[in-house]
Amino acid sequence: MLVNETWLTDVRVPVENLVGQENKGWTYAKFLLAHERSGIAGVARSKRGVEKLREIAANETLDGAPLIKDFDFAKKVSQLEIDLAALEITELRTLAGEQAGKGPGPESSILKIKGTEIQQRLTELTLEAVGTYSAPYMGGVSNDNGSNEHPVGPDYAAHAAATYFNMRKTSIYGGSNEIQRNIITKMILGL
Fold first, then answer.
1. Which of 71, 167, 81, 154 is nearest to 124 (CA)?
2. Potential cystine with 136: which of 59, 88, 119, 152 (Cβ 3.0-4.6 Å)?
3. d(Cα 56, Cα 27) in Å, to the nearest integer?
4. What is the CATH number of the domain that holds 125?
């Protein structure tokens, strides 16, 4: 997906304004993108999100019991936690490599793919946990602005739908997950 494209033709830049070495722009951009992708993984943010999800699932009920006690829902949360733990280990290996002077390689693409998939699943499960309370989302509604409209359900449900829809974009920015798979294929498999 092309977001922005800029073409500069016959541009002259004074030597004192040159950043880095001439004709190395793409090399610098790839280095920066690799670091950006590692950050997009958002391990700490996802860990906080899982904690919040567990709190919500403990408060919401299904057939009179806490939702977190439902086998199918608990299985989804557990699988998410397993995937998040594996992502955290990959992130730690990447950070250890950087500490040793090795820049991020294809593992930054793995972090980006798995991190964004986890973020999206987390918002899906949160939406599932709050159930119908997420449907009547009214953006900007608060009790102190003089409006007769009030959020429906518990406070944690008010932004579940908006967060879900906002997180759909994570698999696109920083280089789409499809592009990341191509990078992994080329760098690791040599195809």
1. 167
2. 152
3. 45
4. 1.20.140.10
